[in-house]
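Lecture 7, part B: from sequences to assemblies.

Below are the input chains for today's worked example.
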Amino acid sequence: MLQLECPVCGVLADETELVPGGEAHLQRAGPDSTDDAFADYLFTRANPRGVHFERWCHVYGCGKWFHAARDTATLEVFGTYSAQTTAPPDDIVAAIRARRPEWEGPA
Amino acid sequence: MAEAMTALGGAATEGAIRVAEAPPTGMIALRADLSTRAVGKAVKEATGIALPRALRIETAKDRSVAWMAPDEVLVFCPWEKAAGLAADLSEGLGDTPHLVADMSSARALIDLSGPGWREVLAKGTPVDLAPGAFGPGDFRRTRLGQVAVAIWASGPERAHLICFRSVAGFVFDWLSMAAARDSLPGLWR
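Predicted structure of the full complex, as structure tokens:
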């Protein structure tokens, strides 16, 4: 069972209290973009085996969205952080590097 | 005013604990940025209660204020005072962006009495209900069975459950079954 600490209310929430929101930090392709870029934005995901940044919503609790960094293969959670950011914060990146020295860094 | 009709008509069962629907209770949802001073002041003036900390509920006289989210509290009061209190809250907030709604009829309130309430709820919620982790004054939104509920611990042998009116029947039946006699391990007594 996956457990994530909601950074908004501080609850260590079970997976059953949460709703997944898919890959985090996607850059939206706007109206001026090509069809290919827009299709990529909509459908193409990194889907890595390893370190992954995700959006989650604490839907059965405080109802707020947040970000989580975890390993898709081992389910190890590196940390959770605010939804109001466009890139993983330094402390999360440092926590991942400490556990996964071979990690290539955020895309 | 129309006669108050609760979701279950005051149904009650006696098992390992007593599960009973509470009498009609006023419930007011207030949504506003709780970090702004104006909101705390308006809540204090209207209810006489300071804003609770996260995951807590504060009670004074016949009213309680529960923390629901960083931008939402739920105010409990006597049924007949709900409309007036909602108006007071809205007036006190004035131009501060907010939403006040009398939710008394939209939600159901179920009382659990007996020392086994923790073990009954633990059968269907992911919350850590051990006495040291969840105690009187704690208020937690979570899920029970498969529906959204909020758990309010008001005393060592007393808790309340808030759910949507539409699922009150399911929650009551679930609780009644979970509270079957001789079905609790008795670890937390």
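Note for the exam: Residues 20 and 56 of chain A are 5 Å apart (CA to CA). Keep this in mind when comparing with the next example.
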